[in-house]
Fold this sequence. Notes:
heterodimer, A: alpha/beta, five-stranded parallel β-sheet, three-stranded antiparallel β-sheet, B: mainly alpha, about 85% helix, about 0% strand
Amino acid sequence: xxxxxxxxxxxxxxxxxxxxxxxxxxxxxxxxxxxxxxxxxxxxxxxxxxxxxxxxxxxxxxxxxxxxxxxxxxxxxxxxxxxxxxxxxxxxxxxxxxxxxxxxxxxxxxxxxxxxxxxxxxxxxxxxxxxxxxxxxxxxxxxxxxxxxxxxxxxxxxxxxxxxxxxxxxxxxxxxxxxxxxxxxxxxxxxxxxxxxxxxxxxxxxxxx
Amino acid sequence: xxxxxxxxxxxxxxxxxxxxxxxxxxxxxxxxxxxxxxxxxxxxxxxxxxxxxxxxxxxxxxxxxxxxxxxxxxxxxxxxxxxxxxxxxxxxxxxxxxxxxxxxxxxxxxxxxxxxxxxxxxxxxxxxxxxxxxxxxxxxxxxxxxxxxxxxxxxxxxxxxxxxxxxxxxxxxxxxxxxxxxxxxxxxxxxxxxxxxxxxxxxxxxxxxxxxxxxxxx
Lengths: 209, 218
């Protein structure tokens, strides 16, 4: 990988449900950088993240990054309701070949709930558990889809601290977000210019506009 | 992968239903058939090998639709697909966990249910052995079917239709082993064919299932 780029995207086009939503997307995600994806609903933020995570193939273009360097957290948290917080986290740690989960529990302030079944967690606590999973995955590039949804102000600040620490350690993060994620200095990438314009749809909208 | 097997076992035990459902169904079949067919020992002994194998097969089928559907719903499948273990390994681990929670209990319960069906004494050993060799194939084939239908709402019906024809060789060889053994004949040939079916399914289908999941995740 040349320079400080942790992830390099060149002329990427990606599709959702067979319809190309984004086209001509080119950007670098540098080490130590958190890039915030912005854009209205349906622009393709989640589609872009899923494409980068390798869950769906791109229509066109290149994604270059070192192998096994991505950790992805989507809308669905992947939390098993009948397992405890600790068991959920230990499982993901084991999958990624690690054992230590204490640091992640402490960082996301989940230690008091470690023996509680995940079904009794609040929405914000489940979110924090999903973010703790990113910590035990211990991979340099984080792809986060709406990480701050249902987090209170204190938890958003905690999230921002965790991301900042991750960046300081040489990591990088690509974050799709609408609301405040507590990272005021982070550069943003507005996706609207890359929206694929579809003529028939546009004409339809104009007729009612 | 051991962690994945361990998690699935724990989930099956915690959420109750999944673990006992197949076993309860198998018990019901073995109890209800004599009531329906009549208690004549000769009739029961003649149909026992077939009933015991059909019952085990259908009991295995019961819990298949949850194999990947639950992980797909809560997003775990996406995360497993991006995890450092290969998806083929995920499929194999989940099939193994399915066998441990639904296949193995059937194997252990089969001799007791054989008693209810007047299975002739020489049939018991081969019954347990044939189920032990054959039920892993049911789980692996089932995992492939579950992978094909993972993105579908109410995929259970389609899953049964897809999987049932693939179960036929296992059923024929398995029931044949028990039938021959109960009649005092040599059952080595169907046993080898059954073992071959299981080995072939276990070698090929995890790859097919992983490919199906990759397509379904898009």
